[in-house]
Amino acid sequence: MTLHSRDVMGFATKALLGYPVRTGLMLVAMAIGVGSVLVLTALGEGARGYVTGEFASLGTNMVIVLPGRSETGGMNPGAMFGDTPRDLTLGDASALERSPRVQRVAPLNVGSVSVSYGARSRDVVMLGSTHALLPIRHWRMAQGRFLPLSDIDRALPVAVLGENLRDELFAAEPALGQWIRIADRRFRVIGILASSGQSIGVDTAETIIVPVAAAQQLLNTQSLFRILVEARSREGIEPVKGFVENTIAARHQGERDVTVTTQDAVLSTFDEILSALTIAVGGIAGISLAVAGILIMNVMLVAISERTAEIGLLKAIGATSRQIILFILVEASLLALFGALIGLALGHAGAWAIRLGFPTLPAYPPWWVVFTVVLVAVLTAVIFSLFPARSAAKLNPVLALSRR
Length: 404
Description:
Layout: H1 5-17, H2 20-56, E1 62-67, H3 77-80, H4 90-95, E2 102-117, E3 120-129, H5 133-137, E4 141-144, E5 158-162, H6 163-170, E6 179-182, E7 185-193, E8 198-199, E9 202-203, E10 207-211, H7 212-219, E11 226-231, H8 237-251, E12 258-262, H9 263-306, H10 308-316, H11 321-357, H12 367-393, H13 397-401
Parallel strand pairs: 3-10, 5-7
Antiparallel strand pairs: 1-11, 1-12, 2-3, 2-6, 2-11, 4-7, 5-10, 6-7, 8-9
Helix pairs in contact: 1-11, 2-9, 2-11, 2-12, 9-12, 11-12
């Protein structure tokens, strides 16, 4: 019996259309499996893209200095005797500007304060820093100017407001040049920061920024939350990191009691974690593809029992066992392919809904997942259909024609 590819496709298509309910159920099962893989991997990739974007807002050649030494193992002996890490100070920050490889240094304090203008009052996050923070964080001004260039220890009574904070305190009134009260001190508004959304946990639209020395007075502290150091080039990051460690150690009587990390190192760690998470959730969702494959196998076994006479007739007119197996596998492949295509549409619709609900999350399924999930769906259907196909190929044509 000679068969052409269009004969095989026609036979498989008619077999599927002949049992619409059964075909529909298998399409739904495969579509759910494929769609769930796409949605979950899109979530994972969206989280990875969000974190990458957040760190990108810090700058491109960033070295971050934090007080306290991060131990990789064992116990810090100083903790046994009640010693605490030495604070980072404004003097430490000034010392870090002395390298030609360093582009900018921005000391940073963070705290919660009460801000008021007239009868309006708000509790907000306050950042204390210098004029270098704006270019380091790649922020923009909507109005006015940023913190002025001045000595790091001058507590100038000036403030920069986020856009939402400006609207809530001043409504339709002009804010520039007005005096506001932060805790028990008066500050003049000199600029309005353009909203940049969330940046490492801080909403710039809801933030107030003052000179770092003024922030230390308001928070009653001499220590810094961290110091941001920007290298002049990407190649200079590691030399700057070494310079920072040596400089701080020299100022702290030889003690290496700070943690110096780079943006790339932190980002790489998050990237590895979130990539593993994406693969894990994609694998969990992929289990549904195996379930769909088992369903196809079971349905094919039932289909063979219902079409015993039809298979017997094919064998009686000369169809070989290999051709019978080919019929069944093509039928299963078509089921899986159409189900996967429907699943792709559902998955992309789900990812679009996530992006619509959470605009800051770039939830796009990776291209390799789209390709792989279709391939896996078809292979799963073929593999799980081999047993029913071989069972059909072994049928005796005489007994099959008599439905036995």
